[in-house]
Amino acid sequence: MTHEKPAPDATPIVSLSKLNKHYGELHVLKDIDLTVVPGEVVVIIGASGSGKSTLIRCVNGLEEFQQGELEVDGNTLLPNGKATRALQKIRTEVGMVFQQFNLFPHLSVLDNVTLAPMRVRGWSQDDATATARRLLARVGISDQADKYPSQLSGGQQQRVALARALAMEPRLMLFDEPTSALDPEMIGEVLDAMRELAREGMTMMIVTHEMGFAREVADRVIFIDKGRIAEEGPPEQIFDAPQHPSTQSFLSRVL
Ligand code: ADP
Ligand code: MG
Question: Is the ipTM of this complex over 0.95?
Answer without folding.
Answer: yes
